[in-house]
Amino acid sequence: MTFTQIIALLFFLFPLAYSPGPGNLCFAAASASNGLKATLSANFGYHLATIILTLTIGFGFDQVFGNHPQILKFIGIIGSIYIVYLGVKFLRAGLGKLAMKSTNIKFYDGWLLLFLNPKGYLIIFLMFSQFKANSEQNNAVFIIIITVVFTLNNLIAFIIWSYAGRSITRILASEKTQRRMNVIFGILLILVAIKLNF
To answer: Which of 41, 55, 107, 185 is the Cys-Cys partner for 45 at CB 3.0 to 4.6 Å?
Structure first.
């Protein structure tokens, strides 16, 4: 993969990775409630899952989804339910008195957030369909490079969103404001889950 292709890939990924989505909103909300350190385990889970899923699709799993599109639809429904669950978790934290304890996210939350996110699958499919055909490089090397670029780009986006969530809370430091932020993030996550299916 040439430097020009990597730049083109980053331009392709930028609006997808940095726009409000389930992952970005979830990490911003968790960071706002518990601080950046509290999101590290879930962040690791999410990006480990990103590497595994991207490599798997890159090495031919896309054919399974191409022949059986109902599998992706099923993943989308389950994923939306899980995102609603996370949204309700933040919403309840915002409406309750113990906001800090109930919005903690773990490794498995990050892992499931990627594997049950239909947007993640679609981005990976689009990425390979746009860039794989134009690559003259060895297939395995290309897939590894695209996986690394994709994962690092997502990681940077999540760190920015997590930092933004924490910064907003620092500026508006009262417990009442933190609860309101949890309610807002909870509602946004639920709306994203609904949008994924309509």
So the answer is: 107
